[in-house]
Amino acid sequence: MKRMIIALVAVLFAANIASAQNYMVVNSETVFKSLKEYNSALEQIETLSAEYQAKVDAKFQEVEKLYNNYMQQRASLSEGVRQQYEQNILKKEAEATEYQESLFGTDGELMKQRMSLIQPIQKRVFDAIESVSQQYGYDLVIDIAANPTVLYYSSKVDFTERIIEALK
Questions:
Q1: What are the residues whose beta carbons fall under 8 Å from the beta carbon of 85, sequence distance 6 or more?
Q2: Mean pLDDT score of the chain, rounded to an integer?
């Protein structure tokens, strides 16, 4: 009798857990790509990145030019002048690296621009996902764009198009 009660409680507990799993699936990549302002922001970031890269390349080309000139003249220079050239080249290289970091680093200008352009769009998308999930009573949202281990999901739980519609 005691075993039967424990088994019944276990079955009821398992049924309760199974019914509590209320989730929806969203492909955030599809949602973001459907937004014109997101695509425009990406284009602006790419343009800015290309401009910054050209400036960085120019600085490193200057360092390379100094180095090549030094190597050509090295044999005819005194030890003191050689050291001065080498220090100058190392200083210019450090400046170029520092400049590159100021543009492309984690706290660089490109990251700041990315944050200012993309973050408001992300907030809007995440707010729409939250709103739709609350509207339909879902407790968990799975992003299939970022999770390559999802092997199967039913189209009944894919709310990507509803999110896109909610953003329009």
A1: 66, 70, 73, 74, 77
A2: 86
